[in-house]
Write a structure and sequence with these properties.
The protein is mostly helical and 152 residues long. Helices cover 64% and strands 0% of the residues.
Length: 152
């Protein structure tokens, strides 16, 4: 009889390893919404209207920080599609550092892990999915590979 079969029959308190229930916490407690629902909607509208430029970056980052908790709550309670997220928060696609900041806020102190995992595991998967595409996607993949070769 295998060990995993024996563990399966044990009572929960006798098991050495227990499954910990993951909370649906929206991130560290240090990042909180500032203001009420109308302020959050105002910040979201501000982010939608402002175009990414050197003058607007600080305002956009501030608005993203203010809406962090409500955004995480929205994503966890009503799982939107990527298109819905980008429609509600279009600056994610315009300003690449916002994704890094979002990851850092969600997983406190592990911001560099996002970049390492991106290059090690996510990029090959994206390449595989994109390779199944046609036309312009192939040219983009070749351009991306040339770019990473230049960086090394």
């Amino acid at each position: 009889m295998r060990l995993r079969n024996i563990r399966r029959k044990l009572v929960e308190v006798q098991r050495r390893y227990r499954r910990h229930k993951r909370s649906r916490d929206v991130g560290p407690s240090s990042v909180q919404d500032e203001g009420d629902d109308s302020d959050i909607k105002e910040c979201i509208n501000l982010m939608k209207k402002l175009r990414p430029s050197a003058e607007n970056i600080s305002s956009i980052k501030s608005a993203m920080q203010k809406t962090f908790t409500s955004r995480r709550s929205w994503i966890s309670k009503h799982p939107p599609t990527m298109n819905q997220i980008f429609q509600e928060y279009p600056r994610f696609s315009d300003i690449p550092t916002l994704l890094d900041t979002e990851f850092e806020n969600i997983f406190d102190g592990k911001g560099d892990l996002f970049i390492r995992r991106w290059e090690a595991s996510i990029m090959p998967k994206l390449k595989a999915v994109a390779a199944k595409g046609k036309g312009d996607v192939t040219a983009l993949i070749e351009g991306m590979e040339n770019q990473t070769d230049d960086e090394n």
